[in-house]
Amino acid sequence: MQAMKFNGSGSEYFKIWIVNILLTIVTLTLYYPWAKVRNRRYFYGNTELDNQNFEYHATGKQLFAGYLIAIVALIAYVVIQQVSPVGGVVVFLILFLAIPWIVWRSLIFNMRVSSYSNVRFGFAGKLGGAYFNFLLLPIFLFLAVYGFPIMAAILAPTADGDVASVGPMVGVFFFIGLAVAAYLYGVMKQCNNAYIINGSRFGQGEFKTDLKAGPFVIFLLKAIGLTILGIFGLLLLISIAAMLMGAGAQLGDLGAAFGDPEAMNDIFANSLVISIVVVMYIGLLFLSIAIFTYLQVRQREYILKNSTIDGRIGLASTMSARSLAWVSFSNLLAIIVTLGLAIPWASVRMARYVANHTQVDTSQGFSDYVSQRQSEQSSLGDQLGDAFDVDIGIGI
Q1: Cβ pair 268, 245 in contact under 8 A
Q2: Of 30, 131, 265, 299, whose CB count within 10 A is highest?
Q3: Interaxial angle between packed helices 321-337 and 261-305, expressed in degrees from 0 to 180 and rounded to the nearest 10
Q4: pLDDT tens, 233-280?
Q5: Do the Cβ atoms of 17 and 343 come closer than 8 Å?
Q6: What is the pTM of this model?
Q7: Which candidate, 223, 149, 135, places its Cα nearest to that of 180?
Q8: What are the structural domain ranges in the chain?
Q9: Sequence-separated (6 or more) residues with CB below 8 Å from residue 268
């Protein structure tokens, strides 16, 4: 296994980033597609595997058409909603139903404009699969989360108008809904990742993956358990802090020596409130990052471990939840402290971390395999199609 490399630097990317920001503002966001192309070309071009780099071939002009359509659609929705609420609902439903098609077109376009060692990627997934994965499954998951409690509230017996009798049944339906939702979450993650990976191509080579829903369910349940433990620990920490501050507040009586004991008590009381708020905010922020990174790391490890290229080139992830959480949290802290100026540094740092912890099996004929794909490249069409560009997250 050989790890990928990222050769970019924060200072180098800062020049690209700040120019993109300024031009996007000056052009009232119309420069955004070109800014996105410059960003992606920088990150693709600086990502290396086996002494060969990736490339991004799209142009700002190609992305501009899709961006303009999105802006027009948003403006139309806002205007129609103001004129006719019913019309706004209709437009919203149309846009909602178009999401899987947009995702499908984005996958096709982004794969076709990406390459490694002069070999283009591709996507062969069907539109029907996009609607199943990005419309039906999310709807089922939403219904499982919210449908069972609502159903319990509607159908539960309310003899003699005793609302309290509804409580136990609502609780039962709520936990049943959570169990169904956890299972559907696993199914959705399995299907989403399988659809994207199995539909991906490298030249005429095929990506393959064999995933099960069970591991995703287990990852989710563990994340929920860690969340509960984290909240309990945070509340315990806050309680201890409150007790200590309360004991300190009693020292406010010493302020009598200075002629104003009530002022001293007020100071301690205010300090107590501020300390609790700060601890709670920072604790919840770090807990959220920790849980998110845990899910991301475990899912990524499982997905790559069970994925190959043409069944012969293996993939692996060496990320750890602790290190990714630290990189994410410290990046966020740096961005806040610098009022956003550290975004380029944070982006490069994260890109380097992800690349260094992504491994590809280059030991057995990898160079020959890439050369074979290169020889087949001339037979592939080079038409890029319409540009509908959205970022798709699949857990890797």
Answers
A1: yes
A2: 299
A3: 130
A4: 888 877 776 676 655 555 555 454 455 555 555 555 566 667 677 777
A5: yes
A6: 0.84
A7: 149
A8: 140-198, 212-305
A9: 245, 248, 249, 251, 252
